[in-house]
Write a structure and sequence with these properties.
CATH topology of the largest domain: Aminopeptidase
Strand content: 15-25%
Strand order of the largest sheet: 16-11-6-7-8-17
Low-confidence stretches: none
CATH architecture of the largest domain: 3-Layer(aba) Sandwich
Number of helices: 14
Helix content: 40-55%
CATH superfamily of the largest domain: LCP protein
Number of domains: 3
Mean pLDDT: 84
C-alpha cells in the first residue's frame, strides 16, 4: 500500500470516528432536550396553576401568563422538531428548557414565600390573650407557685378586667383553695403591700407593669420578680369584614411602647393611635391621630374616664370600642406594631422622607424644619420625641402621621419591587393584623391592575391640657390629660363621612 493510500485510509477513519462522535452528541442533546422540556412543561404548568389557585395576579395578568405559557411551550416544541436538522437548535432548546424550568421552580418557591408571609400577619390576630402573672419579692424564698399555699396574695380588682377575676379563681384552683387573697383599692397600696411583706405575692396584669414602673415605683422590677403566670385568657375580637376592593373600610393602627426584638404584645399601653379611613374606589386615605393622653370614656363608659393609651392595657377590643364610641364609627380591622416594627420596615424600604414643622434634637439625632431623610433608627426617634416641641404629644402624633404617610407612599411606588421580599418579611414579621391574607392579596391585585396613585389626607386632634383621675389606676390622684374638643370630633366625623362617600 502506498503512503498516499495509507494517509487516505487514516483520514477516512478519523472522519468516520468524528461522524460517530457527532451522532452520539446529537442523540445525547436530542434526549436531554426532550427530558428537560418535559421538566420545563411540568414546572411551568405547576407555577401557572399555583398562581391561578392562589389568585395572586389580577385576571388580566393571569390570562397573559396563560397565553405566554402556551406560546412558550409551542415555540419550544418547534425548536425540538428542528434539532434533527441543526444540532445548534437542540443545544439552544436544552439551555432554554433549563432556564425556564429553574425560573418556574424559583417562581413557585417565591410565591409560596409571599403567601406564607401574608398568612403569618393574621395568625392569632382574631383573639387577644391577656396574661396575669404572680410577682414576689426578689429576696423571697419562693421558687414555685406551690410554695404559696397558705400564704397571702394581693390583688387589685378591676371590673373592666375579667381576666383578673379569672386569674384569682385559677390561682385558688392551682393551690387547692389553700391561699388567702387580699384586695387593695389601687396599685399604690398593692405594690407597697408586697414591699412591706404584708403579702407574699401579688397578681399583676402584664399590660400594667409599664405603668407601675413609670407612675408608682420606678424600681419595681429591681426588687420584685415574676414567679409564674397565673392565667391566660383569650378575648375574641369582633370584626366587620367587607370587600376591601369595593367598599370603604376603617383600620385602627396601634403602636405599642415595647422596645427590642420582643413579640408584639396583645395588651399594653398604645402610644400610637391612628385611624385610617380607606376608600379603595376613589383611592383616598384619611389618617386621623388621637393623642395618647386624650381623656376618653373607656369602651364608651363615662364612669371609666382615662387616657386613651390605657385602653390598650385592657386589650385591642377596649381600644377599638373606645375610639368607635368617641367618633361614632365602626372600625373594621386593626394593625399592631411596636418600636422594632418601625425600624425594620423603614430600613427594608431603604429609608423614607418625612417633613417636620420644627427643628429639634432627640438623642443622637438632629432634625431640621422641612424634609428629613430617615433610616429606621432616625424614624423611631422622629416619632417618639414630644418634649420641647410646641404641642408636645399632639405634635408627636403629627410626626407619626408623616412617617406613616411616607411609608405608604414608598410601599405604593415601583421602587419597592426591587427589594420586595425584604420589605414583605419586615412587614409580616413585625406587624399583627386581623385583615385576612385574602383581603391583603385582593388589595395587592387591585394596585397591580391599575397602579393608580393614592391621595393621603391627615387630621391631628389638638386638645387642651387639664387634670383628671385615671380609671385604670384606681386612685383619686389627678394626672395630666388632654381634652377631646367637641368641635374637632364633629370635624373628624364629617371628614370620615366624606371619604366613605367618595367626596
Amino acid at each position: 500500500m502506498s503512503a498516499q493510500s495509507s494517509a487516505q485510509s487514516e483520514a477516512s477513519c478519523k472522519a468516520l470516528k468524528k461522524q460517530r462522535r457527532q451522532q452520539r452528541f446529537r442523540r445525547v442533546v436530542f434526549w436531554a432536550a426532550w427530558v428537560s422540556f418535559c421538566i420545563e412543561v411540568l414546572a411551568l404548568v405547576a407555577f401557572t396553576g399555583y398562581v391561578g389557585v392562589l389568585s395572586f395576579l389580577p385576571h388580566s395578568y393571569f390570562i397573559v401568563l396563560l397565553i405566554g405559557t402556551v406560546i412558550l411551550i409551542g415555540l419550544h416544541v418547534l425548536s425540538l422538531c428542528m434539532q434533527k436538522r441543526a444540532v445548534g437548535a437542540g443545544v439552544v432548546s436544552l439551555i432554554l428548557s433549563l432556564i425556564l424550568a429553574i425560573t418556574s421552580i424559583w417562581g413557585s418557591v417565591a410565591l409560596r414565600f409571599v403567601y406564607k408571609n401574608l398568612e403569618q400577619t393574621n395568625q392569632g390576630a382574631n383573639v387577644t390573650t391577656i396574661v396575669v402573672s404572680v410577682y414576689v419579692r426578689q429576696d423571697s424564698e419562693y421558687e414555685t407557685l406551690e410554695q404559696l399555699k397558705n400564704h397571702n396574695v394581693g390583688v387589685r380588682p378591676d371590673p373592666m378586667n375579667d381576666t383578673m377575676a379569672q386569674a384569682v379563681e385559677q390561682l385558688k384552683e392551682d393551690l387547692a383553695q389553700q391561699v388567702r387573697v387580699a384586695e387593695y383599692a389601687d396599685y399604690t397600696q398593692l405594690i407597697q403591700a408586697l414591699k412591706d411583706e404584708e403579702v407574699d405575692a401579688i397578681l399583676l396584669d402584664e399590660g400594667m407593669v409599664a405603668n407601675i414602673t413609670e407612675f408608682f415605683d420606678a424600681d419595681f422590677l429591681n426588687w420584685a420578680r415574676m414567679l409564674s403566670e397565673s392565667a391566660r385568657v383569650e378575648q375574641e375580637i369582633e370584626i366587620e369584614n367587607v370587600d376591601v376592593t369595593k367598599t370603604p373600610f376603617i383600620v385602627y393602627i396601634s403602636g405599642m411602647d415595647t422596645k427590642g426584638n420582643y413579640p408584639i404584645a396583645d395588651n399594653g399601653r398604645s402610644d400610637v393611635n391612628q385611624i385610617a379611613v380607606i376608600n379603595p374606589i376613589t383611592k383616598k386615605i384619611l389618617l386621623i391621630n388621637t393623642p395618647r393622653d386624650t381623656y376618653v370614656a373607656l369602651s364608651g363608659d363615662p364612669a371609666k374616664m382615662d387616657k386613651l393609651t390605657h385602653a390598650g392595657v385592657y386589650g385591642i377590643n377596649c381600644s377599638i370600642d373606645t375610639l368607635e364610641a368617641l367618633y361614632d364609627i365602626n372600625i373594621n380591622y386593626y394593625v399592631k406594631v411596636n418600636f422594632n416594627s418601625l425600624i425594620r420596615i423603614v430600613d427594608a424600604l431603604g429609608g423614607v422622607t418625612a417633613e417636620s414643622d420644627y427643628a429639634f434634637t432627640f438623642g443622637k439625632y438632629t432634625f431640621h424644619k422641612g424634609l428629613n431623610d430617615l433610616n429606621g433608627d432616625q424614624a423611631l426617634a422622629f416619632v417618639r420625641h414630644r418634649y420641647n416641641l410646641p404641642g408636645g404629644d399632639m405634635q408627636r402624633g403629627v410626626h407619626q402621621q408623616r412617617v406613616i404617610q411616607a411609608i405608604l407612599k414608598k410601599l405604593m411606588s415601583p421602587a419597592t419591587i426591587s427589594n420586595f421580599p425584604e420589605v414583605l418579611t419586615a412587614i409580616t414579621d413585625n406587624t399583627k393584623t386581623n385583615l385576612s391574607s385574602d383581603s391583603i392579596n385582593a388589595l395587592i391585585q387591585m394596585q397591580l391592575t391599575d397602579m393608580a396613585p393614592w391621595e393621603i389626607q391627615t387630621y391631628a386632634m389638638f386638645g387642651k391640657g387639664l387634670k383628671g383621675a385615671l380609671y385604670a389606676f384606681g386612685t383619686p390622684v389627678q394626672y395630666d390629660v388632654l381634652t377631646a374638643p367637641e368641635e374637632q370630633i364633629a370635624e373628624i366625623q364629617m371628614l370620615i363621612r366624606q371619604i366613605k362617600k367618595g367626596r
